[in-house]
Amino acid sequence: MPNVKVVDMTGKEVGAIALSDALYGAEVNGAVLHAVVRAYLLNQRQGTQSTLTRSEVSGGGKKPWRQKGTGHARQGSTRSPQWVHGGIALGPKPRSYRVSINKKVKRIALTSALSDKCANNNIIVVEGLAATEYKTKTMVNMLAAVGAAKKALVVLPEVDKMTIKSFANIPGVKTTQADNLNVYDILNSGSLVIARAAAEKIEEVYKA
Predict the structure, then answer these.
(1) What is the pLDDT of residue 208?
(2) What is the helix (H) or strand (E) element at residue 149, kind and residue range?
(3) Radius of gyration of the chain from Cα atoms?
(4) 8-35 tens-digit pLDDT
(5) Of 36, 48, 101, 142, which residue is most buried, by most CB within 10 angstroms?
(6) Distance CA 137, CA 132 (A)
(7) What is residue 150's predicted lDDT score, i.e. its pLDDT?
(8) Distance between CA atoms of residues 135 and 141, nearest Å
(9) Beta-bridge mates of residue 4
C-alpha cells in the first residue's frame, strides 16, 4: 500500500496517508491509456467544419465558353474545383467524431494514470487545502511551498468557488473535484495536488 506524506499549505510535513493499492499501485496499461486519451480528445471535437462543393457555390450556371474552337480546355462551369472561387473537391463536411469507451476500460485507465503518478512521486497530498480569500498569490505561494510542478492538477473534495477562482489565473494549473477525475487531465499534469479530504473521497468513489 503506497504511503504518501501529507503537507500543509506552507509545505511543512504534518503526517502521512496510506493510498489504496487498487487505485495507486496497479500495473500501468499504456494501450488502455492511449485508447482513452484518444477517445477523450476526439470527443472534444465539434465536427462542424464544412466546405462548399461545386453544387453549393453560388453562380457558375453559364458555360464560360463554347465547347470547341477556342484553344482553351473545355469547361462547363466557373465553379468547378480547379477554378478560383470554385467549389472544394472532397472537402470536410459535418460529422461526428464520437468514440465510446466502456466503463471497465475507463476504470483501468484511471487506475493506470493514478498509479503512474504515484510511482513517479508526482502526488502531493495537502492538509486543509482551501482559500480563505480570493487571492491568486496565496495559491501561487502554496504550490511553490509544496513543490508542485508548473503544470498541476489540483483535486478538491467538492466545488469551492473561492478556492477554484484563486487558482483560475495561474498558468498551467487546473482544478477539478474528486468525483470528476479525468484521465487526460491527470496525464497532462506534472503534479497531482490532492486535498487530503479529496484523497479520502477518491477512494470512496472509485475503489471497487
Answers:
(1) 61
(2) none
(3) 27
(4) 999 999 999 999 989 999 999 999 999 9
(5) 36
(6) 12
(7) 87
(8) 11
(9) 17
Is 9 within 8 Å of 142 (Cβ atoms)? yes
Confidence of residue 206 (pLDDT cuts 50, 70, 90): confident
Q: CB of 149 within 8 A of CB of 122?
A: yes
Q: Average pLDDT for residues 82-96, to the nearest whole number?
A: 95
What average pLDDT does the segment 172-198 reach?
95
DSSP β-bridge partners for residue 5: 16
- Which candidate, 114, 93, 120, places its Cα nearest to that of 206? 114
For residue 69, the tally of other CB atoms under 10 A from its CB is 7
Supply 73's cell numbers: 480546355
The alpha carbon of residue 165 and the mean position of all alpha carbons in its chain are separated, in whole angstroms, by: 19
* Residue 172 DSSP one-character state: T
Locate 115 and state its grid cell.
Answer: 498509479
Ranges of H-type helices in the chain: 21-24, 30-43, 103-119, 136-146, 161-168, 183-188, 196-206
Three-state secondary-structure class, residue 197: helix
Residue 51, pLDDT above cutoff 80: yes
Q: Angle 136-146/161-168 helices, nearest 10 degrees?
A: 80
Q: Which helix (H) or strand (E) holds 79?
A: none
Burial class of residue 165 (count of CB atoms within 10 Å of its CB; 0-12, 13-18, 19+): middle
For the record, the C-alpha cell of 134 comes out as 480570493
Q: What's the CA angle centered on 80, arms 78 and 81, to 5 degrees? A: 130
